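Suppose you are handed a protein chain with no further information: no name, no annotation, nothing but its sequence. What can you learn? This example shows the usual starting point.
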Amino acid sequence: MKAVSAPTAQLVARRKIINEWPTDSISIDFYKQEGGDANSTSSSHKYKPNTILLFIPGNPGLIQWYSDTLIKIVEQLGIGYAVRGVSYAGHGAKELVGSKDDHKQSFINTSGHQNAVAAKMSVSWTIEGQIRHKLSWVDEVMDEWKAEFKSSSQVAELPRLIFITHSFGAHLAQHMLLGRPDILQQTQHIIHLMPFIRFDPPPLQKMMLSTLAHSYEYTIPIICNCVRALTATLPPKLMDLYLNRVVGLDCDKGRKIALDVCTHPDMVKNHLVLGFEEIRELPELPNVVYLQTEREKDVAFRILGRICPISILFCGDPDQWAPLSHMEKLKELQSKSLINNIHCTYMEEVTHDFIVHPKMIEPVVDFCLNQIKHPKISSKL
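A reasonable first move is to predict its three-dimensional structure. Written in structure tokens, the prediction is:
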């Protein structure tokens, strides 16, 4: 008789081509462990998920930072759940965390590809391009699910979707859902962690960031050259110490990923170009889509809230990307019945960059689990 052990959640990291861009992605599924093989990821041993958590990170859009957190979430949810996560186009680590795949396939080097560079970089450097990239990723996730679990002789229901986002990932996810009613109808819940969906920091920070963003043609080369000089001058151990003591990255794995990014000039440039466009393009109004009329300014939350609940986590330590004033405005709109089905939570002990602070991971994991297991608001699914 074959030995059968308890099902385990296992991560598989892959680099795939999405919209012509090599893209880091992860999948976390439960597998039946038979014969003592605790590392088998054969599709024949995979449990069919009824609910898929789709994770979209903030900028820098590296999924590797979040893999351990996502494993903790799905392990506590149990069989029936799975996770799919994706990096941004043009934002990736040199190595895939947890993967045995070939790491030698590099990202597009903008200095070495003169033909069709503009079209390719529009995917990496623009909000619209990143939205298209994430839509293609969701479609691919569903195609893979159908190929694995939906046989031609059996009509199976598609899995429910739960979107979990961090920072600017919220903006991308809400744009995607507004533009694709089919995906929205399949969505059971939206969970935003410190969503950057409006740009309204304190006046001094706003002036400084806006100045940098609008003079990006000059500021980006300067910043890239400074990063390049710093990484070339400091040995790895000193660079690690700098990221730990000066930048404040107290997570060993997070520092390694950050160092990998800093030593790849194209990735640094891609983060900055997209980030400055975010600052230029995001509205100051509490809405994900910029609409000209005052009457329509809250339409995004109204549309999404009609279909599924939206849970939003705000953090302590003055957050210029997801300020508490945004939470208060959302509560005000909800009190006037202008938006519905939205629940806001404030955690003082967590900061916007929680993912690189190990002590902050557990409260965020607990928040996500609580929203999924005990939603305070209703879903039509």
